[in-house]
Amino acid sequence: MFKLKLHQSSIIIIYKLLVDLLFIFLFFFALTLLAEGLIPGIVSTHISFSRIIILSSLDIFAIYLVGNFSKINIPSQKINKKTTVFLAVLGIILVFNSLIKLNLFLAVFILILIAISGYLIYKNILD
Q1: Which residues are CB-neighbours of 32 under 8 A, at least 6 positions away?
Q2: For 3-25, how does the pLDDT look when each residue is reduced to its tens digit (9 = 90+)?
Q3: Who contacts 28 (Cβ-Cβ below 8 Å, separation ≥6)?
Q4: How far apart are CA 6 and CA 12, in angstroms?
Q5: Which of 63, 71, 99, 119 could cross-link 107 (Cys pair, CB 3.0–4.6 Å)?
Q6: Pairwise CA distance, residues 1 & 75, whole Å
Q7: DSSP characters for 62-80?
Q8: Residue 1 has pLDDT above 60, yes or no
Q9: What is the distance of C-alpha 77 from the center of its chain?
């Protein structure tokens, strides 16, 4: 057919736009999860979470392809522990909120199991 020629600067701009789009998708996904955790059913009745996940996955795949095509290398970054702790506490609060209709002792037991599992996963990833 025909070949599409792109300059290196155009490929870098496409790459940056895809990364920005991924940030927007993930921010939107986080806000929808937060809203769904606070008021169950407010988002899931209008927007399917699978659509957001599929769009984010397609965007990650496009970033991977464009990055490999233009040979962009990204150095690894350190993990911010304050943000990690904040997100873990927020996740625990949202999980407990979703278990509020259960027996209190069962909800606390499930919450403790989730916290222990999260800690073990966190330790295994860092080691």
Answers
A1: 43, 47, 49, 52
A2: 667 777 788 888 899 999 999 98
A3: 52
A4: 10
A5: 99
A6: 37
A7: HHHHHHHHHT---------
A8: no
A9: 17
